[in-house]
Amino acid sequence: MPHQPDPGPLDRRLRRRGLLGVAAGTAATALLGTATTPAAATGARGRGRPVLPPGRLGIQLYTVRDQVQEIGFARLFEHLARHGYSEVEFAGYTQGTGDLSLPALRRLLRDNGLRGVGSHVAYHADGGDPDAYSFATSLERVLDDAEALGLPAVGTPWAPNRHGDTVDAWKRAADDFHTYGAAARARGLTFYQHNHAEEFGFAEDRPDVRLYDLLLAETEPDLVHFEMDVYWAYVGQHRFSVRPDGTPAPFEPLDYVRAAPDRFPLFHVKDGEREDGTRDGYRMTDVGDGDLDYRHFIDTVASLPRQRRRHHWLVERDDAPDPVANPAGSLSTARRSGRHLRSLRSRGDCG
């Protein structure tokens, strides 16, 4: 039998915060099937309550970044509003047709009936540029900009590996995040981190420690929140269900949210078609064309006590502007994905 390390402070913190065991157990096995059932096969367009809470259909503007550059925010916002979107998450505040002032950008949101709910900003200066726009180099400016746009939250899409991938390195990143979270809270804002797949890997010096569990355990719930990218979480499930020593380490992404729903105010709704035998296990698609069961996922989260209207669901497809991967184009992705999500109806069995 493989050596089982002594439970330490990390294990105690995970227990205290209700997160130990999230990554294992029979719940993971039971939920795995529903997480990878094609939506088309589940009768998603039923007669029940809409799965998506009213006014909570959003999009990460990285999905349509080519349109930001080509037609500008004003025309893009008109398109998004026409197709039922209520919320946007920014990935930069400039456009190819010229910069806008932040008050002008905020007015464009308002004029189109849209709300800004967050923004992605670099964690630190890539390459060490002291003038780079990031939390580490420009914290007050980042928060000033979020306030100017009326955003309730601002976050980073970067992994917490600024100092490396050891346990101590991620603890140092947790300290950084506490700094950003405290500064954000002092302004009435929320700080959050967006995952990719690598967060679900294991510490270099402690292969029994999943890095995402470590980050959750080492950060205070009132200072550091999370935006779960559902697609990348299931890629992480595919890639990191076995520890480096070969022992099983299954986990179910939905269980993280069940354990601490208030820590996950935002979600990226990104779909993928299963591709067995590949590194990631999925290939990105428009939402509704893949194998991730968003009716079950959103309905489960919305059915948690006092949670239905607390979360923001943001369409994203990383390769939407790529003419090879997505010849229909990014506006088609926005239109089709939004239409699918609005069509989903609850089965009423996910509470």
Automatic annotation (TrEMBL):
Residues 336-345 have a biased composition (Basic residues). Residues 77-302 form the Xylose isomerase-like TIM barrel domain. Signal peptide: none annotated. The keyword Coiled coil does not apply. Pfam families: AP_endonuc_2. InterPro entries: IolE/XylAMocC-like, TAT_signal, Xyl_isomerase-like_sf, Xyl_isomerase-like_TIM-brl. Keywords: Isomerase. Gene3D superfamilies: Divalent-metal-dependent TIM barrel enzymes. Residues 319-351 are annotated as: Disordered. It comes from the Bacteria. GO terms for molecular function: isomerase activity. PROSITE patterns: TAT. PANTHER family: HYDROXYPYRUVATE ISOMERASE (PTHR12110), INOSOSE DEHYDRATASE (PTHR12110:SF41). This is Sugar phosphate isomerase/epimerase. It comes from Streptomyces hazeniae. The lineage of its organism: Bacteria, Bacillati, Actinomycetota, Actinomycetes, Kitasatosporales.
